[in-house]
Design a protein that fits this description.
By secondary structure, the chain is mainly beta. It is 12% helix and 36% strand. The chain is built from 14 helices and 56 strands. The strands form 13 sheets. Strands 1, 31, 32, 33, 34, 35, 36, 37 and 52 form a 9-stranded mixed β-sheet that branches.
C-alpha cells in the first residue's frame, strides 16, 4: 500500500524553546525592578518550558544471557509530577560494559507510559550494562538528568536452572570505571578537587564560595582509588594551628565550620592505613555573601554579607521542580535570617537562590524534604492465595490509591543475583535531582529524624549539580550555559519525525547548487512490501522536516534531492544524533547490591554444601564469579550450516570489542563529512589498529580448486585468479597490538594482514572467501574484535598460523550493497519498537514440567479500580518457594507509590 508522509514545519516544534530562550529587555531604572524582572522570568520560564523526567521499572535486578530484560517507562512533567503531555516518543538505550550503545528502543508514550524490552541473547560479552532513558526534549538540558541504571549481565548458567554461581568476564566487567578510562571522575563535579596520587578530597563550600571574614560551612568528600573512603582530618591555618578536628562518615563525607582570614587553609587527612596527606582549601573571595541553611526543624536560612555588600538590595527565590514557590527581596546586612515552615513545603529537592540586581548568583543551596509516611499512599500486596506449589496457580490482591497505574513483578527470590535500591519515588523526588550515583537512596526516605536529615544535608552539599539552572530560568543566560548542551535546541517529538538539513556536496569538481528551495522526496518501504512517500521543500538554510506515520519496526528510507527539476547532488544530513554523553561509572555501580536478608538465607540454603568458589579456582567478588581472561581451545567446524551468513553471534561469541558501524557511518554522513575507508576508520576509532591502509603487497594466492599454493610471481597466477578467489595474505596492512589480523567477512575467511612468512598453507574449515572485503564504511554493519589466540581454528587449519597468534576481526556487511545514485541518500528509519509478550505455561491445561523462569510474572499495565483494588493471577515455576515482589506506579494526583 502507499500512504502519504505529511509535510511538517520544524519551527513550530521549536517555538516553545525559542520563546523561553529569548531574553526580554532588562529594565535599568532601579535595582528593585531588575530583581522583580528576574523573579518574573523565573516564574514564567517553567510554565512555558517545563522539564520532563523519565524512570524505568524493571522485571528483575540482574540478568543471565538469553533472558529478556523487560521494563515499564514512566515519563512525567516535572512541574506537576503528572504523566507528560509534552513528548510522545521515548528513547531507551542499552550500553555495554565499554560504554557503547549496542541497542536502542523507540517507544510510543501513551499518557506518559510505555512498555519495552531488550533481548540479552543478542548481546556479546558480560559485565555491567547501563540502561538509560530520555526524550529528545529532555536533551535541551544537556542529558545529565536522563534516567540511568546499571545491571549485571552474567553468562548463562552452565547447568540449566542453576543460578547459584553467576559468572562474568574479568576483561569487561569494570571497563567503564574512571581509572580504566583515565578520567578523574571527581573533577567532573562542581566542587574544588585536590588530588594526591590515588587519593583526592573535593571541597564544597555551602552556598558556593567561602568569603573572608564570614562564618562558612565546608563539606568535603574523600576518595581513594575512585571509591569514597572514611578519614580523620585536622583543619590547619597558615601558621599550622589546629582549627578543628574532623571525621567523615562511613561514606567518606564530612563537614566543618571555618571563618577564613584570607590565608591558606589546609586539611591534613589520615586514612585507615595511617597515611597523611595535605589538601589546600579553595581560596576565599574577598567580598560576597555566605548562605548557611539549617534543616533541623523548620528551614532556617542565614545570609552573611561582607562590608561592601551590606546595604544592597538582593532577591531570593525558593524553587521546587522548577516552580518558584516563594520570591522576595531583602537588604543585605552583616547577618539576616529568613525561615520556611517545613510542614508547608513539598517533598523532594528544593533550591534556594540569592541573587543581586545584576543577575549574579551570590549564594545557592539545595535541601531535601522527606515525604511523610502514609500507608494509604502506598501499594500493599497480599500473600499468595493458593500457596506456593510447583507450577501451581498464584493469586495476589493489590491495594493502592484508586485509579493508580502500576507495574508489577514477581521474582523467584532464590534466584536473585543482585539486590535492588531505589524505586520510582526515590528517583523522581531525589536521584533525578542530583548528580551521580546514590548508593542507597531508600535510606533518605526511611525516616524524617535528625540523623536522616543530616545525612540528606551532606548529600545535597556534595552532589554538585542543579537540574534547574537559575541563570537560564531567570533570563540571565541561554541554554548554552548548561552542562552537556549540544549547541542546538532539540524539538518536541509529539509523534515520529525526520529532521535534517541539506549541505552542498564538498567535491570541488561538482557544481554546487543552492540549499534553499530544493525539492525533497522521502520514500519509506519495508520487507512486507509496504511503501509510503512524502514531499517537502527546504527552507532558506536547507532545513527540512517530515512528519512520519506511526509505523513500527525498521524501515528503509531514501531521500531524493532535485533542484530546478533535475536530480542534484547534496549531502543529506539527518538530525538524529542527540544521545547523552557516555559517563564513567561509579565503582559502586559495579558492585553487587546486597540481597535482602531473607533472600540471602534462601540462596544459602539452595547452595548448601557448595563452597564459595573453593576448589573451582575462580575468584568471587560480592557474590559474582569473575572469570579470568583464559585461552579457550578452538573447535573445528566442518559443517558450513553452523556458520550462517550474516549471523553476528559467531563474531560476538569470543569477542571483547564491538563497533556499531551503521551508527558511526550515519553520524559521519549526517555531519556532512566524507566517509573514510573501513581501515581508516578503525585506526581513528582504536589506536591499537596500526599499519598501512593499502593491501597491494601480496605474498601468495591459494587456488581453491586444486588447493595449490602459487607464488605471486608464478606465471600461473593471473589477475583474474586473484580477483576470483581473493585468498591472499599480505606482508603489509593493519596490525592490532602489533599482531597480525585474521579478517573474517560475514563468517567466512577473507585474508590475513601483516603475515610474516614467505610460505603459507592451510585448509579452510568454512568455505572461505565468500565475500570481498568492503572498502567504505557504509558498506559495513558491524565489527567485532577477538584477541583469543586460538580463534583462527574456527576458520582455518594451519601450522603456520598457530605461530603468529593473530587477532581475529569479524566484519559484517549489508547484503546486496549498491553504490548510491546521484541525489539519493539511502539509510534506515526506526519506527516504534513493540515489546515481546511475557509468556508462561498454562499449567491448568498442562502437567507440571521443568520451568526455570526467574521472573515468575511480569504485568506492566495494572490499573487499580475505583475501590482501590486490583488482582493478578499467574503460575509458579517448578521450584519457587518464596516470591520477591516489586510494584511501582503513579496515582491520578501525581503521587509515586511503591511496594518492595
Amino acid at each position: 500500500m502507499q500512504r502519504s508522509l505529511t509535510i511538517f514545519l520544524l519551527s513550530f516544534l521549536l517555538l516553545p524553546m525559542r520563546m523561553a530562550a529569548q531574553t526580554e529587555t532588562q529594565p535599568a531604572d532601579s535595582a528593585l525592578n531588575r530583581l522583580l524582572y528576574y523573579m518574573k522570568h523565573a516564574m514564567m520560564f517553567n510554565r512555558a518550558t517545563p522539564q520532563e523526567k523519565a524512570y524505568l521499572h524493571f522485571d528483575n535486578t540482574g540478568y543471565f544471557k538469553g533472558e529478556t530484560m523487560r521494563f515499564k517507562a514512566y515519563v512525567v512533567r516535572a512541574d506537576r509530577n503528572l504523566p507528560t503531555d509534552i513528548s510522545r516518543v521515548l528513547y531507551v538505550e542499552l550500553l555495554n560494559a565499554s560504554g557503547d550503545v549496542i541497542d536502542t528502543r523507540k517507544l510510543r508514550l501513551e499518557h506518559g507510559m510505555a512498555e519495552g524490552d531488550f533481548q540479552t541473547d543478542s548481546i556479546f560479552g558480560t559485565g555491567f550494562y547501563e540502561v538509560r532513558a530520555f526524550t529528545r526534549y529532555m536533551m535541551n538540558w544537556g542529558g545529565v538528568g536522563a534516567f540511568s541504571r546499571v545491571f549485571p549481565i552474567f553468562y548463562a548458567p552452565e547447568k540449566e536452572g542453576d543460578y547459584s554461581q553467576p559468572r562474568m568476564e574479568e576483561l569487561t566487567y569494570n571497563r567503564r570505571l574512571p581509572e580504566r578510562q583515565g578520567a578523574d571522575h571527581a573533577a567532573t563535579d562542581a566542587g574544588h578537587t585536590v588530588a594526591d596520587g590515588s587519593r583526592s578530597v573535593t571541597f564544597y563550600p555551602e552556598g558556593g564560595d567561602m568569603v573572608v571574614g564570614l562564618p562558612c560551612r565546608v563539606a568535603f568528600r574523600a576518595v581513594k582509588d575512585g571509591r569514597r573512603t572514611p578519614v580523620k582530618a585536622l583543619l590547619l591555618d597558615a601558621a599550622d594551628n589546629i582549627l578543628e578536628m574532623v571525621e567523615t562518615d562511613a561514606d567518606g563525607v564530612g563537614a566543618f565550620d571555618v571563618t577564613p582570614d584570607g590565608k591558606a587553609l589546609r586539611l591534613v587527612v589520615t586514612d585507615e592505613q595511617q597515611k597523611r596527606s595535605e589538601y589546600t582549601l579553595p581560596t576565599a573571595r574577598a567580598e560576597g555573601c555566605v548562605l548557611r541553611v539549617s534543616t533541623d526543624d523548620d528551614i532556617v536560612a542565614r545570609l552573611y554579607a561582607s562590608p561592601s555588600m551590606q546595604g544592597r538590595l538582593l532577591g531570593y527565590t525558593l524553587m521546587h521542580n522548577g516552580n518558584v514557590m516563594t520570591a522576595d527581596t531583602l537588604v543585605a546586612q552583616p547577618a539576616v535570617e529568613f525561615e520556611f515552615e517545613r510542614s508547608k513545603m513539598l517533598p523532594g529537592v528544593n533550591q534556594l537562590t540569592v541573587f543581586d540586581s545584576d543577575g549574579r548568583i551570590q549564594a545557592e543551596r539545595l535541601f531535601f524534604i522527606c515525604p511523610p509516611t502514609d500507608a494509604a499512599d502506598s501499594i500493599r500486596v497480599s500473600e499468595p492465595a493458593y500457596g506456593m506449589k510447583p507450577c501451581g496457580r498464584i493469586r495476589m490482591d493489590i491495594a493502592a490509591p484508586a485509579g493508580s497505574d502500576l507495574s508489577f513483578s514477581a521474582m523467584d527470590a532464590a534466584t536473585l543475583t543482585n539486590g535492588k535500591v531505589g524505586n520510582l519515588r526515590t528517583w523522581m523526588l531525589l536521584s533525578s535531582e542530583v548528580r551521580g550515583y546514590i548508593e542507597n537512596p531508600d535510606y533518605y526516605f526511611e525516616a524524617d529524624d535528625a540523623v536522616h536529615r543530616r545525612a540528606a544535608d551532606l548529600l545535597m552539599l556534595t552532589q554538585g549539580w542543579r537540574r534547574y539552572d537559575w541563570r537560564l530560568q531567570s533570563g540571565v543566560s541561554g541554554f548554552d550555559v548548561l552542562e552537556g548542551y549540544t549547541g542546538r535546541l532539540q524539538p518536541i517529538e509529539d509523534k515520529l519525525y525526520v529532521f535534517g538539513r541539506l549541505k552542498p556536496d564538498t567535491n570541488r569538481w561538482r557544481k554546487k547548487h543552492p540549499v534553499a528551495g530544493v525539492d525533497l522526496s522521502a520514500y519509506l518501504y519495508n520487507k512486507n512490501g509496504e511503501h509510503m512517500r512524502g514531499d517537502c521543500i527546504t527552507d532558506s538554510v536547507g532545513g527540512y522536516a517530515f512528519e512520519m506515520p506511526d509505523v513500527t519496526g525498521e524501515w528503509n528510507l531514501q531521500i531524493k534531492t532535485r533542484y530546478d527539476g533535475k536530480d542534484a547532488r547534496y549531502v543529506v544530513a539527518i538530525d538524529r544524533h542527540f544521545s547523552p554523553a557516555v559517563r564513567p561509572l561509579s565503582p559502586l555501580e559495579t558492585d553487587m547490591i546486597p540481597l535482602p536478608s531473607a533472600v540471602e538465607v534462601l540462596r544459602r540454603q539452595q547452595a548448601e554444601g557448595d563452597a564459595e568458589g573453593e576448589g573451582s579456582g575462580i575468584a568471587r567478588k560480592n557474590g559474582t564469579y569473575i572469570l579470568p581472561t583464559v585461552k579457550v581451545k578452538g573447535r573445528y567446524f566442518t559443517d558450513n550450516s553452523r556458520l550462517p551468513w550474516y549471523d553476528e553471534k559467531t563474531g560476538a561469541r569470543k569477542s571483547t570489542i564491538y563497533y556499531n558501524v551503521d551508527e558511526a557511518s550515519d553520524a559521519i554522513i549526517d555531519s556532512g563529512e566524507q566517509l573514510p575507508t573501513l581501515y581508516e576508520w578503525l585506526k581513528q576509532k582504536n589506536p591499537f589498529f596500526e599499519g598501512t591502509n593499502s593491501l597491494d603487497d601480496r605474498w601468495v594466492v591459494i587456488d581453491d580448486t586444486t588447493g595449490k599454493m602459487l607464488s605471486v610471481n608464478d606465471p600461473g597466477v593471473s589477475v583474474d585468479l586473484m580477483t576470483d578467489y581473493l585468498h591472499t595474505v599480505y606482508k603489509d596492512g593493519l596490525t592490532y597490538k602489533k599482531r597480525p589480523i585474521l579478517w573474517i567477512v560475514n563468517n567466512a575467511y577473507n585474508t590475513i594482514t601483516y603475515y610474516p612468512y614467505n610460505t603459507y598453507s592451510f585448509e579452510y574449515t568454512n568455505g572461505g572467501g565468500v565475500t570481498p572485503m568492503p572498502d567504505f564504511l557504509d558498506e559495513v554493519k558491524s565489527v567485532y574484535v577477538s584477541e583469543d589466540e586460538d580463534n583462527y581454528t574456527h576458520f582455518v587449519r594451519s601450522d603456520d598460523v598457530v605461530r603468529i597468534h593473530p587477532v581475529t576481526v569479524y566484519v559484517y556487511t549489508h547484503p546486496q550493497f549498491t553504490t548510491p545514485s546521484k541525489g539519493l541518500r539511502r539509510t534506515h528509519f526506526q519506527g516504534y519498537n513493540v515489546p515481546t509478550e511475557f509468556v508462561m505455561e498454562d499449567y491448568s491445561q498442562l502437567p507440571p514440567m521443568a520451568d526455570y523462569r526467574r521472573t515468575i510474572f511480569w504485568a506492566p499495565a495494572v490499573h487499580v479500580d475505583e475501590t482501590g483494588h486490583a488482582t493478578v493471577e499467574f503460575f509458579n515455576n517448578s521450584s519457587c518457594s518464596q516470591l520477591y515482589i516489586s510494584a511501582e506506579g503513579i496515582t491520578p494526583q501525581g503521587h509515586f507509590v511503591v511496594s518492595e
